[in-house]
Amino acid sequence: MNFRKPLVAAAAVSALMSVCAPAQAFSFLGATSNSDGSFSFAKDTKVEFDFFASHGAYQSNFNVYGSGKNLLTTLFKEEVARDPLPGPKPDYNKDDSKGTCGITVLPVPCQTTFTFAKGVSYFLGLTANKDKTVYTDAAETSFNFVSGSEKFVYYTNYKDGNLNKRKSVDLYADPGTTLIAVNDSWKGGRDYNDFIVKAKKSAAVPEPGTVGALLGAGALGLINRRRKASEAEKA
User: Fold this and answer.
1) CA–CA distances in Å: residue 120 to residues 35, 65, 197
2) Are residues 110 and 123 in the same domain?
3) Which residues pair with 101 in a beta bridge?
4) Which of 38, 62, 126, 137 has the most CB atoms within 10 Å of its CB?
5) Is 224 left (phi over 0), alpha (psi -120 to 50) or beta?
6) Residue 75 neighbours by CB under 8 Å, 6+ apart
7) pLDDT tens readout for residues 23-53
8) Both 131 and 225 in a single domain?
9) What are phi and psi of 207, to 5 degrees?
10) Do the Cβ atoms of 124 and 62 come closer than 8 Å?
């Protein structure tokens, strides 16, 4: 998102939308998409979120919402709207007001987790520009989910309103990782670069009963080995 985007020619905006608009169905780590646009998991699922980058002049929060779109937690919060640039007249169009970990988003390493409970409906949302929020719901097309070996390209330079001069970046989601690219509440362009995070399932943690069984089996194996060693010494 960039406040100078209205200067972009209509033809250029149309071309950009054809490149960046979501082309795949909802795909978020095996979650099921519900009729209201929310999603849910078949079992308790702990997800690790990694902030990748943000662009645009809005200062944003990336949140998890529950039923009724009530705020549950903020995963990432921009402390400032964008990375500051030196000089009396910095050109924020050069990188579309880029935000990075350690400057725009804190604390480093800009990672967090959230456990989605079994069967509970959730929304993801990006709040920006004085509490205007876009959600993962049926009324929005603001979230782009890229997974597996899918290719995602977004533009990071809007100078002169010329597609030929815009810099593009190719992102490949790692196996088991979903890339979440969001277009914020400013509707002047569908660039899907305003907030980008990576998400993957956390390593499964054994249930307490399973842990106890494993410990018991290990202890039993140790006792048997000692008994056999003792019998061998007596023989």
Assistant:
1) 14, 11, 22
2) yes
3) 105
4) 126
5) alpha
6) 49, 62, 63, 64, 112, 114, 197
7) 445 789 999 999 888 999 999 999 999 999 9
8) no
9) -65, 155
10) yes
Q: Are residues 209 and 234 in the same domain?
A: yes
Q: Is the same domain home to 125 and 65?
A: yes
User: Which residue is it, tokens 């929304």?
Assistant: 123
Residues 148 and 222 in one domain: no
Model confidence over 162-186: pLDDT tens digits?
Answer: 555 666 777 777 888 999 999 998 8
Residue with tokens 């815009």: 166
Q: Is there a single domain that holds both residue 211 and residue 150?
A: no
Euclidean distance between CA atoms 126 and 204, whole angstroms? 28
Q: Does residue 209 share a domain with residue 137?
A: no
**Does the model's pTM come out above 0.90?**
no
Element (H, E) at 46: strand 45-54
Q: Which two tokens stand for residue 126?
A: 């990006």
